[in-house]
Design a protein that fits this description.
By secondary structure, this protein is an alpha+beta fold. 26% of the residues lie in helices and 29% in strands. It has seven helices and nine strands. The protein has a nine-stranded mixed beta sheet with strand order 2-1-3-4-9-5-6-7-8. Helix 2 crosses helix 3. It is elongated, with a radius of gyration of 19 Å.
Length: 208
């Protein structure tokens, strides 16, 4: 099913402006392209229903409001607060960590899919996509698939944010910043170091 209406376009534009997010940040989160998002905003292209739902989830609004079906409905869903951490260690429950910098909100629907925390990025290793000072929303999990951006702890070092690449002989942890060399670990090193996945990054939030 395709959807096209001026209410959707104007409300999408309103949400993007209010969040102060760039199209390059939003597009990969909702499974579309920057060009398509621009066309949606100007009512020049018809998004599929699944894209509209992903946009509603991304902006924490009801899909009915985004489509313009309900003028009176609140634009925000009931939110769940999660802690923003400066660092996180493997094996320590998030609720036991005391270095809480702030709080972020996620939807009840998202919160129902697992345990979440947010992490404040402290270096430039993931620029330009994830910058120093950005906050990432993380779902706690100890496994991930190749291509996922994960929070991972290596030995006694603080946990870091990297792109995971899975190979038959082990894994590669890649930075988006090409000034940083990829880190390769064999299956044996994953156990001996150890290399522990703490969670998967599911959203980026940038303070303007």
């Amino acid at each position: 099913m395709l959807i096209r209406n001026s209410n959707f376009s104007s409300r999408l534009k309103q949400l993007i402006q209010a969040k102060k997010a760039t199209l390059s940040e939003i597009a990969p989160e909702v499974g579309t392209t920057q060009a398509s998002l621009s066309r949606y905003m100007h009512n020049q292209r018809e998004p599929k229903t699944e894209i509209v739902q992903k946009l509603a989830n991304y902006f924490n609004v009801e899909i009915e409001w985004l489509l313009g079906f309900d003028e009176k409905q609140t634009t925000t869903k009931k939110a769940v607060k999660i802690p923003v951490l400066g660092k996180v260690a493997a094996g320590i429950p998030i609720e036991a960590i005391e270095n809480i910098l702030d709080y972020e909100e996620i939807t009840e629907k998202l919160a129902s899919t697992g345990t979440f925390f947010a992490l404040r990025i402290k270096d430039d290793s993931m620029t330009p996509k994830i910058q120093d000072g950005d906050t990432v929303i993380v779902r706690q999990q100890n496994t991930a698939k190749s291509g996922d951006v994960v929070i991972v702890k290596i030995g006694v070092d603080d946990a870091c944010c990297k792109k995971l690449v899975v190979k038959s002989q082990g894994i590669i942890l890649q930075s988006f910043n090409t000034a940083y060399e990829p880190m390769l670990f064999t299956k044996e090193e994953i156990i001996s170091r150890p290399v522990i996945i703490i969670g998967k990054v599911i959203e980026l939030r940038r303070k303007m």
